[in-house]
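Friendly challenge for the regulars: who can give me the structure tokens for this chain first? No prize, just bragging rights.
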Amino acid sequence: MEERYDRPRRSGHSQRKRRRRLRPGFVLNSVCLIIILICFCIGGVQAILAHNEAKAQEEAEAAALAEQEEAAQKAEEEAAALAETEYDFTIALMGDVNLDDTWYNMTYLAEQENGIYDCIGTSLLERMQSADLFCVNSEFAFTDGGTALNGKAYTFRAQTSNISIYETMGVDLVTLANNHVYDYDAEGLTDTLATLDSAGIAHVGAGENLEEACEPYYVEFNGYTVAFVNASCAENIRYTPQATEDSAGILLCYETDTFVQVIQNAKENADFVIACVHWGTEYSYEANDTQRTTAKEYIDAGADVIVGTHSHCLQGIEYYDGKPIFYNLGTCWFNEKTLDTFLLEIHFTGNAEEEDVTFTVTPAIQSGCVTRLTESDEEWNQVVDLIEAYSYDVTIGSDGTVYSGDAAPVDDTDDSTDDEAEAGTETGTEDGTLEEDMLDDTADETADETGSDSTTEDSPAGDETAAG
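First reply, four minutes later:
Bragging rights claimed.
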């Protein structure tokens, strides 16, 4: 029998295995597809990342812009708030005024066609009127009644209608702590207070009781507050009483404790304190020891500037602890004498963050019952030289700015000091009248009153007069 050798059959498994074998082209296509998918995914991820990055950048820029806008708005609000506190104002002061109807300057005024306009120079009057606040020492009683103090040689009374003169001059505030406001007793003083109040003119240094006499006068300019305080120690024989709890009078400072307390209280409620003191020796250009000692005490208590009256002539300037002491402003409009004087202007600028205060003197002359600003360099220099001659390490710049010691700019000093001022022997009057001549004239005028009225306790008898 013939044997047959048949090829063995492939099992189904083998057949299936054969059928699953992939073609090379298919594999390649699959790989490409996978690669494409991977690239697509990578691109998608990159796009998403780029989108997210762009979005984050946009958000960051928006946040930065919002922050900038918020900062700008805040800066604008702060600037607006700061602008609301910005101030720029001037306080002007001059010395003694007397409106007694029988006194030299007032009898001269009565003869003038234009009244006070013929007695105060136009330029000076304009400066008085244009100041944000103008203050003088009012050395008489505004009253149509009252009784003159017994034994006092010079008693000054102005009819109440004379208040119109102050209104024309632009007076906003008067100091009353002096040796003549009580010349017509308590009635005269209370009439004075009422007359000033009716005219809207503020006052300081006197009152119907001690509390009123001690009350500072406050004035505010855009949030910046200035306080005025006022006291007197001008009489050797004390005709003018201090107010009490239930009686009218002024604030005295022979003993300084009360006035020191007044200054301290004012400083607690104000940014700047002006202490006005009626003191010194009449017609003396030298500040006496009492003035120099107590002035420093008042600055230690909180005063930012000391302004003196009473001598009717100029006294020097001194700085203490960076703050100026104007020992005497001289006269404003008081009598017929030829006297050098000046308008003191305190200029305030700044805001809630910073402040600047400058002191300027504008020379003037009272002569023949007329007070006017100086009209030539020669007149200007004679007044400035006189002030510097009696000052203590103080320089007055070419524009009248007052500097302490070496604080003056080199190019702002005036070296034109005349021999008379350096010697300290002349008054600086237009006619060259010597100080000694003026004192002799004053002594003749008040010979029967020497030593009886209006000097400080340590004043030499030979310098005393009763008319101021």
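Confidence is low (pLDDT under 50) at residues 413-466. The first strand starts at residue 87 and ends at 97. Your move, everyone else.
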